[in-house]
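Predict structure. Chain length: 416.
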Amino acid sequence: MVDILLKTIMFVPKFGVHSLQVGFIASKIGKQLGLDELELFYCGVLHDLGVLAPHKGVLLDDINNEFLIKEDIPTFEAPTKDHTLISAFVVSKISFLSKRFPNLSASILLHHALPHYLNESSTRDIAANVVSISEEISKYVLVNDEEMTYDDFIVPLSAIKNRFFDFVYDAALSVLKQEYTRWMLYDIKAGFNREKLIQDYYIQEAMSFEEIVEMGAVLSYIIDSKSEFTRAHSWRVANLAGAIAKEILLKEEEFFLAGLFHDIGKITTPISILEKKGKLTTSEMDIMKKHVYYSYLILLNHQNEPWFWPAVRHQERVDGSGYPWGLKRSEMTFKDKILQVADYFVAVLEPRPYRGPNTPEKALEEVQRAVSNGVLDPGPVSILKELVYGGFNFESIDFMSSILKDISDFEKSLTE
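Prediction complete.
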């Protein structure tokens, strides 16, 4: 399941390239130094995860090469920066990784710290310094389209040699002498070998349901928080889909995961489209709709899981008017139709740039109208109706998980 985290990062333009490059080169330097190669890869890939979380008005759309280079300049005044604090905090909430790599968050926290803040006999601090020099190497590749030779790297790195432990600097140069390393960095930039890289460093160990939810909560927070109007959308859909399933004795956990991951492809959707107050143009609508396609690609390795198809078919409609496949009634399962109803209902329930929120009763009316128009299946809607008029507490689907609340509160503490 950890591949979902890696592939989501990979799909963020520029940021994904930088993250995978840093993870790759850090793992190679770490191996040269006798450190845990796998830990250094995850430390490198996740080192800037906090940049994706909304803080100080930074949006995913703002993250380009210039932004990454500016953010990655260390300071002499302090060993940490706001985004390293958030990155470390967010990664600490993914217990599957933090339990396996106890130093992961601390190394990420200190990856902008200069040597006088670090202890060269501490594995944690060495890993932080490895990520630091790996970032510099990645930045040079990002801004130079023509492939750099070994000598091309020496000049800029020697100018900032004082930022790194001598043995880390020497290990980095040693790794850069390998043609394979340099070629791989440019292949990652060009879009080649990214999937193979993730596969090479994939942790095969199974995740528990609780660990999957933790990771999903972190990712859904990053994605849904791109817009104030969808800040807890996936969490609401997960809860409501689970509640509908529970009413008819289906496995609540399957529907919760489908709801949690259904919009993961929105990592690619520009904020300008998500928050547009007027009607979307045809081209804008095509971009918006494409998020389902990206959800499919990100989640594809899990197509045999029972939650996969409901998650990626949530925009299909029983009359064939949905997307991305235009499936009709008999071409989908009842489970697919539950997710469609849950997502549709929550979208109507939530506020949008062009209107305020609706009551559950008003949202149900909209859903029933969609049934009358042949868009949604009446079966799941009849169950939803029982929830709306049967005393179900719809405030419960608004409740953010403790992880979402912790991240949100932590970000606010840095800006208030």
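Summary: The chain has 24 helices and no strands.
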